[in-house]
From TrEMBL:
This is Protein GrpE. Keywords: Chaperone, Cytoplasm, Stress response. Residues 1-43 are annotated as: Disordered. The gene is grpE. It is found in: Cytoplasm.
Length: 196
């Protein structure tokens, strides 16, 4: 029986040692697992911070891209509008420079000529004058109507006031210099005399 007790005691001791070893191993495993979890948690926090930072950078870049696209669209629209205006009103500068010559033609046509040579010359001047007016008309440039019309400060430049019972107040009674328009834009207002 002693042998059995000894064997039981050995088994018990062995079991106790195994249990202690296992307990120590479990504690070590638990500690190691906790450390790994802490490391994983720290790693997870770092990754989340990095993700948030990358999202902010992405939002900033998307915002910048949208602004650049809007600026480019505005530039394209502005350029297109400028090109259309240039196409539509490109002849304005040339017309403005030609107006004094046209005025001189009008003055020449008002002169009294009695000789046959003078009349032939005047007829040639009139042909050139009409040719210039036709060219102006083809380019969309037309004279502003003035006499008998109500004074319009956008189209008329009043330099004299008159008193004529034939016209109502604020009506143009005489045109001193023709005005011209290019489509809807006034190139030069008509210089006029307005009834009081």
């Amino acid at each position: 029986m002693n042998e059995v007790n000894e064997t039981q005691e050995e088994v018990t001791n062995q079991t106790q040692e195994d249990y202690n070893d296992t307990g120590e191993k479990n504690n070590e495993e638990i500690e190691e697992s906790a450390k790994q979890q802490e490391g994983s948690t720290d790693e997870l926090k770092t990754l989340q911070e990095k993700i948030e930072q990358l999202q902010k950078e992405l939002e900033a870049k998307e915002d910048r891209l949208l602004r650049i696209q809007a600026e480019y669209d505005n530039y394209r629209k502005r350029t297109r509008n400028e090109m259309e205006a240039l196409k539509e009103y490109g002849s304005q500068d040339l017309a403005t420079e030609l107006l004094p010559a046209l005025d001189n033609f009008e003055r020449a046509l008002q002169s009294n000529v009695t000789s046959e040579d003078g009349k032939a010359l005047l007829q040639g001047v009139e042909m050139v004058y009409k040719s210039i007016l036709d060219t102006f008309k083809n380019a969309g440039i037309e004279p502003i109507e003035a006499v008998g019309k109500e004074f319009d400060p956008h189209e008329h430049h009043a330099v004299i006031q008159g008193n004529d019972d034939q016209y109502d107040s604020n009506i143009v009674i005489e045109e001193l210099q023709k005005g011209y328009k290019l489509k809807d834009r006034v190139i030069r207002p008509a210089m006029v005399k307005v009834n009081q």
